[in-house]
Amino acid sequence: MASKEGGMAFSRKSYKLTSDAERSRVTGIVHEKLLSDYLHRVFASPDHRPAAATSRKPLNFQNLPEHLDQLLHVDDKEDEESQEQVEGRLGPSTVVLDHTGGFEGLLLVDDDLLGVIGHSNFGTIRSTTCVYKGKWIYEVLISSQGLMQIGWCTINCRFNQEEGVGDTHNSYAYDGNRVRKWNVTTTNYGKAWAAGDIVSCLIDLDEGTLSFSLNGVSLGTAFENLSRGLGMAYFPAISLSFKESVAFNFGSRPLRYPVAGYRPLQDPPSTSLVRAQRLLGCFRAVLSMELDPVEGRLVEKESSEWQLQGQPTVLLTLAHIFHHFAPLLCEVYVVEAVLMSFLLGVVEAGPPEQAQTVVHHVLDLLWLFMEDYEVQDCLKQLMMSLLRLYRFSPIVPDLSLQIHYLRLTIAILSHEKSRKFLLSNVLFDVLRSVVFFYIKSPLRVEEAGLQELIPTTWWPHRSPREGKEEVREETSEERLRRRAYERGCQRLKKRIEVVEELQVQILKLLLNNKDNNGGEASRYIFLTKFRKFLQENASGRGNTPMLCPPEYMVCFLHRLISALRFYWDEYKASKPRTSFSEEAYVPPQIFYNGKVDYFDLQRLGGLLSHLRKTLKDDLASKANILIDPMELQATTMDDLDEDEEPAPAAAQVPRTAAVSLMTPRRPLSASEKVKVRTLSAEQRTREDIEGSQWNEGLLVGRPPEEPEHPLTENSLLEVLDGVVMMYNLSVHQQLGKMVGVSDDVNEYAMALRDTEDKLRRCPKRRKDILAELSKSQKVFSEKLDHLSRRLAWVHAAVYSQEKMQDIYWLLRVCLRTIEHGDRTGSLFAFMPEFYLSVAINSYSALKNYFGPVHSMEELPGYEETLTRLAAILAKHFADTRIVGTDIRDSLMQALASYVCYPNSLRAVERIPEEQRIAMVRNLLAPYEQRPWAQTNWILVRLWRGCGFGYRYTRLPHLLKTKPEDASLPSLQKPCPSTLLQQHMADLLREGPDVAPSFLNSVLNQLNWAFSEFIGMIQEIQQAAERLERNFVDSRQLKVCATCFDLSVSLLRVLEMTITLVPEIFLDWARPTSEMLLRRLAQLLNQVLNRVTAERNLFDRVVTLRLPGLESVDHYPILVAVTGILVRLLVHGPASGTERATSVLLADPCFQLRSISYLLGQPEPPAPGTALPAPDRKHFSLQSYTDYINVEELAQVEQMLAHLTSASAQAAAASLPTSEEDLCPICYAHPISAVFQPCGHKSCKACIDQHLMNNKDCFFCKATIVSVEDWDKAAHASATSSAA
To answer: Looking at the whole model, is its pTM more than 0.70?
Structure first.
């Protein structure tokens, strides 16, 4: 092979010396005695006893091969023994998993037949080799900590999807998930395992015992008296549930935790190891000295100072070494046991700079003296071993193991040629290299040394989240504990930061774009692999077990952000016209010019193929981009033909796009277009990404709204886009999951405080109770000590201030990207949905996940960011360019949550007035075919705190129940917005159709929601009254409670509308006012009658207090109805009050006793019924003085007196009406309208309500042209006159 290093070309074969006379001339380069001394020093005997200079045979390059053969000779007896079948073991010498017949269930086995992933309920697999005598050991690397049973079984064991290893006779297993051992029966055993642990399985068939170790620590003997004898041989075996994964080491690699006296199932390659160790000694000798031909002596040197200066003597010596060493370095065991150990020793022995120099020397020599395929195989095995060591190394207090492995990784990757090979062929293709950026959380804090690092523990008494008050002041003792705990956390954080900085250095090497001397720069190789990595994790068709775990993705995201910002700001320093990373965003043309592939991820406007067809004219006019018709047709056919056969593996590569200019390479004029054609990511060059003098690369198709000068290097923009996608894929969910540790701390802290309170209250004479309480107190305290130390780790590794700033930076990137995309008009539809999702979710994470240690309010530009996000939510929740139902719902829910908190609500009020008005106008649009429940929720939050008795956070009847998470939006203190209320009032007054259409939809939804609620509680009541034992479906209970809550919120919206714009109902000069008022009165009477009747359906269901119906109670719905009535009958002008009273009393459903019920005046019992129990409590607003003030109660009393008086007067003045004069639709009001041209009649209320939704006659279905007033007396007189 020809090497490219140092300007020299050598071939290993050219150094294979023979007795050719010409070879002897080479010895002339140095004195023969000096050469002999040098070679004797390099190729010393294995016992390291120097021979006397006079007695030893002179060495030169003629007799060196013979000397080297003697040096590497291994005793033949030892070699033969290693090859023979060892007594006590049966099976192939190379031990792997038996994937041909020794399994049960569906399992995914790795190519090396050592890794396995469960793909069925409880799959089982055993090895190909068994043992029947002696002491044996194998190791299992735990990749996931779920349900698995690991151990031994015989060939006669029969397993199925329910019974695995340990569930049958003669099979034995350890289960670290449930912390038990299994052999038909089960008992407690061992400790819990975690992902990253190593389980050692030991069997002693001489004594008949079986035991296990976890990370080298013995768990004790698990089983004794194993069955032995004729036909009894034991196979290593495992049973594992769905998606659980492990990797076995039967001895193909050095055991991490060997045990004296126990032998691995697969013998190590002893001969190769001996030879490799001796050759390594020779190699180290070369690196530790230099020849000085002038002085004629050997000079001792540090390995870091050694240089390959082209001396023929040294080169020939190394050639002889590598002639024998190269084949050995292709063996996995040798690479890990010899080469890895040597390189780790170099890293551990000196400072990083010196270690890196030595590693570079080694790699230079590997590439120089070995064939390319040999070096590549060696590097592949080296990185695999290094990643395995890093992933499964235990957490020690100073993290020294992780630091050494990462430093060696950096040293290898800083070697340019090795880095490019690994990046192109290994890091993302063979390895899950993201592991290098992960810092695993210790499950056992004692083993991680956190007790010494954080000797004092502390936990917050209540998290000071927004809307939650502090319970009490901190005592001096608690303050001292907290400060000591914080100091310990800082010590831990500094140690973790050392590891994180090394991980960032790795990514800086992979993102280097200056190393393009020998081919493509590392950054562009990384981009191709990174995009493929994103595709594998984003595609729903991907193999789920092979996806990157979310905990790895979180760490990868933060390290990638740090490296990305470093290069971004470095480029800014060299190009002043570009932008700082603090101003970063993704330009909108990347979303529509086809240069970056977004796989099958949804766009805001729908499918990409649809957008390209419908917006092709806009692309041509705004961005000078033409879609190739052939390309468009191919894309469309791909979309339609989803069932076609999959492409070959080689063709399944990420697709992106390049651009071909329809004109020569020169600046485009405004009239010239760019035609887009697709191109595989592997085919892209640096020019395709970065562009050239006449090519904008990724940024082709710049819209006129975008600045001409570039933000930064185009390749960094693609990395930034990938970072945003990563957050959307799994990072946000994992951030939410890690909050569970904090929640556990809060729960145990509450339990401990309750126990301490009981101890203080318990009488001293009850020693039995005191003993139990003291025991509970000790358990809770120990658990809190453990959890508080784990929480310190989580806060340092996941929720630190720096991590919070990364998420905040990502939020601001998304906000700028959305703002710039919005300016492109219709082309905004090309933006992927995940940009809006990340903007919403990252804000949620900052607000909810990083407290109480860090607050979002501390971040720079906090208020400005809140305002910009508010403007985006306000504008886009009803944006017609966004068609996806899920993203529209997410925007609506985000806005609903946004207006629940004072800080974010103030941000909504700070956005420009025209945007605020547009937002309110969209909220008031008719509710049909829209997420009206969320819309209504937003309007209710704007009103909460202003309505009648509407100042509560939790409902009064729920105060004594278990407190909920006070960070929930629904449990925030009222924070009404008078500014937005005023906008709503102005819009309702604005046009003749706004208020009627809005109120018609509100009344329709109220009618539906309350009717559904009543129907459901009827079913619940019937189920509860059955004699047989039955259960109500929890989903039905949830829907029932939702309908009730919707009814209450809709009533509150009506209360707000009547308060702000009473003339909509009371000014009958408006054409729809009377109709709206009658509909409102009808619904209010319906609600009152259903809720206030004594011993009725509602009352009985409330009394049941079923789980899931906690919010269903008299108070919330009755105070909402009362608020509407008070506004109509007490606060309105005299004329309006009179109209409202007449309409209310005219409704046939009106009952005065429903109004009396509000003040605790019960309904008199019907004749013949039993009297109510004297101790029965009646509902009364007067009982809720903490929620309803004296003034409001006086208004209710005034309303009751008014209705009592008006009802009596109406009863005295009413005239009997014959049935034929009543409306044939409702039979409640007299006929007052006639339809033209058909002449049918009804009351005005019925026809007005009908005409809002339909123009056909009730009876004949003729189209109604007009409606005229109808007066029976006037019609009769007119008829007689005509006669």
So the answer is: yes
